[in-house]
Design goal:
The complex is a heterodimer of chains A (about 270) and B (about 250).
Chain A: H1 3-17, H2 19-45, H3 53-65, H4 75-106, H5 108-121, H6 130-164, H7 168-176, H8 181-218, H9 225-234, H10 238-269
Chain B: E1 3-13, E2 18-29, E3 34-38, H1 45-53, E4 60-65, E5 68-69, E6 77-80, H2 92-102, H3 107-120, H4 136-149, E7 154-158, H5 166-183, E8 186-191, H6 194-200, E9 203-207, E10 212-219, H7 231-251
Parallel strand pairs in B: 2-10, 3-8, 3-9, 6-7, 7-8
Antiparallel strand pairs in B: 1-2, 1-4, 4-5, 9-10
Helix pairs in contact in B: 2-3, 2-4, 3-4
The chains are: A mainly alpha (about 270), B alpha/beta (about 250).
The complex binds adenosine-5'-triphosphate and magnesium ion.
Magnesium ion binds near residues 45 and 46 of chain B.
Chain lengths: ~270, ~250
């Protein structure tokens, strides 16, 4: 081996030791092993329900490139429909959870008033609301309401918990600086709660995805990924069904990944390491 | 007389009856004076300071600041906490500006007025740091600057250097004396270190064990900076320590 070659090899080995690169390599190996196992099992089992990875890949590409003959829309449009519902449901939950969570955390009377109701509704799985919401809000607002209810509680409890965990000494410090009750709220309690809110959003996003798919499976106008999956399964087109599942996985990963990033940025800006 | 504490009594409700934390406390503080309150653990030092700050209400008695009875917290009394109590999401500058921000002082003026306090405590260059990026000593410098930026009539300090290591603590004591001589603020400083009180105070108020009252008041007339190794320093330290120890025995 020439000297130059060995230096190149050293550099390559050094690169391998960098944590980011090391971790990505492990991730790739893990995914490759998963796909390989799936492939082998699919071939050995030879079931219509379990297509091989290349078949699913083909269906996936096709679903983006061409309109689905039974639905009349491409995967892009399905994603757009789901994202719209997701966004609307999330926005609604946000609008309710922030004032409610802050009020419950800050005011004792409000807490006592709202808590029993919240505690009764919290244990009901969001999916259990699907039939009811579809019946009264129909296929557009129905799934949105399911997302709303699914996201509401993680948001609410995180904000509430945030307000409750404000360190009393910070309130004392603000009071000795001359803060009014209102100023204590806007300048101490609210900023203190922001990192908790971000955590609530991240957790809410995960739950929101599950809700949207479940809600759309019952029905969705203008498509939607959940609707797409259910339709393909009903038609016996299992490669398409798996393609839809992969789309959900990727979207879920993307949204939580972006949220995790935003959470870290916020935490740094809020002086939390 | 800038501060008059008359007949102060404080009790806390207990399961059965009440616990008298402070039985009787009378103290007059002169303008520009540096007073240390010293006493056994749990005797009610923090409680007294919190009552002066308006964070807690007394059971009985009156507190007059510049002749006016105080009720509730206000920016005329600056407080420095042992735990620093800085706002973690605010930078050094924004922590120091907090009080002026509450008063609605415009940003330009705020910056101008706080800069001199940031410099006074020796934090220039660190204005944009967050508290987590600072050492304990530096955090307390921010705490002091934040309290001074409101231009309070009196500075209340509850074991402000209690969380610092011995070396930083000694340095901060010297720094505090420098800041004090530059601002001529009236200071009430709580500590349970006899050494610290002797190094800093014009007057040391030694409290008794609970139910607490004033045990003895020492006027310390020595010039500053004081020499901890001097014989009179050692003698008085021994005397006060013995007094404190005898009280702990009574309590047991
Ligand atoms: N809010 C409260 N409710 C009931 N008891 C209290 C309360 N605050 C303080 N106490 C009690 O009053 C007594 C005096 O407390 P305080 O914190 O003022 O003492 P301290 O002299 O500052 O003690 P240390 O030296 O440990 O700081 C203690 O016995 C404490 O348990
Ligand atoms: Mg104390």
């Amino acid at each position: 081996m020439s000297e130059e070659e060995s230096r190149g090899l050293d550099e390559a080995l050094e690169l391998l030791n960098k944590p980011l690169i090391k971790n990505s390599i492990v991730t790739i190996i893990s995914l490759a092993m998963f796909v390989a196992t799936w492939w082998v099992v699919a071939i050995l089992a030879d079931l219509v329900y379990l297509p091989t990875p290349p078949n699913v890949m083909e269906a996936l590409i096709d679903s983006f490139a061409n309109e689905d003959p039974n639905l009349g829309v491409t995967m892009w449009q399905n994603i757009w429909s789901s994202l719209q519902r997701f966004g609307l449901g999330f926005a609604l939950a946000f609008l309710v959870a922030i004032p409610l969570g802050l009020a419950m955390g800050y005011s004792k009377i409000f807490d006592l008033l709202a808590k029993p109701v919240v505690e009764v509704f919290r244990p009901i799985p969001p999916i259990a609301w699907v039939p009811f919401f579809i019946a009264i809000f129909f296929y557009f607002w129905g799934p949105i309401m399911v997302i709303f209810i699914g996201v509401l509680f993680p948001l609410l409890s995180n904000i509430y918990f945030g307000v409750k965990s404000v360190e009393p000494i910070l309130l004392d410090a603000a009071r000795t600086q001359g803060a009014s009750r209102f100023q204590i709220f806007t300048k101490v309690v609210f900023p203190y709660t922001i990192p908790f809110l971000m955590t609530g959003i991240r957790i809410g996003m995960g739950i929101g995805w599950m809700c949207i798919v479940a809600a759309e499976m019952i029905g969705g106008v203008g498509g939607g990924i959940g609707f797409y999956i259910n339709l393909q399964a009903g038609l016996g087109l299992y490669t398409n069904m798996f393609a839809g599942m992969i789309v959900i996985a990727v979207l879920g990963l993307l949204t939580t990944g972006i949220m995790q990033y935003l959470e870290n940025v916020t935490n740094r800006r809020m002086g939390i390491r | 007389m800038i501060l008059e504490i008359k007949d102060l009594m404080k009790s806390f409700p207990k399961k059965k009856g009440e616990m008298v934390a402070i039985a009787d406390f009378d103290l007059d503080v002169e303008e520009g004076e540096f007073v240390c309150i010293l006493g056994p653990s749990g005797c009610g030092k923090t409680t007294i300071l919190r009552i002066i700050a308006g964070l807690e209400s007394q059971t009985r008695g009156r507190i007059l600041l510049n002749g006016k009875e105080i009720s509730g917290p206000g920016s005329d009394r600056g407080m420095v906490f042992q735990e620093f109590a800085l706002f973690p999401w605010r930078t050094v500058r924004r922590n120091v500006e907090f009080g002026l921000e509450l008063k609605g002082v415009p940003p330009e003026e705020r910056r101008e007025r706080t800069q001199k306090f940031i410099e006074l405590v020796g934090l220039n260059g660190f204005e944009d740091y967050h508290p987590y990026q600072l050492s304990g000593g530096m955090k307390q410098r921010v705490g002091i600057a934040r309290a001074l930026a409101n231009e309070p009539a009196i500075l209340l300090m509850d074991e402000p250097f209690g969380a610092l290591d011995a070396q930083t603590r000694n340095l901060m004591q010297k720094e505090l004396l420098r800041i004090w001589s530059e601002t001529r603020k009236t200071v009430i400083f709580i500590t349970h270190s006899v050494d610290e009180a002797l190094f800093l105070a014009d007057r040391i108020v030694v409290m008794t064990a609970r139910p607490s009252e004033i045990g003895q008041i020492y006027e310390i007339k020595w010039p500053r900076p004081r020499d901890r190794a001097s014989p009179e320093f050692a003698a008085l330290r021994k005397q006060i320590l013995e007094q404190l120890e005898s009280m702990v025995k009574i309590e047991e």
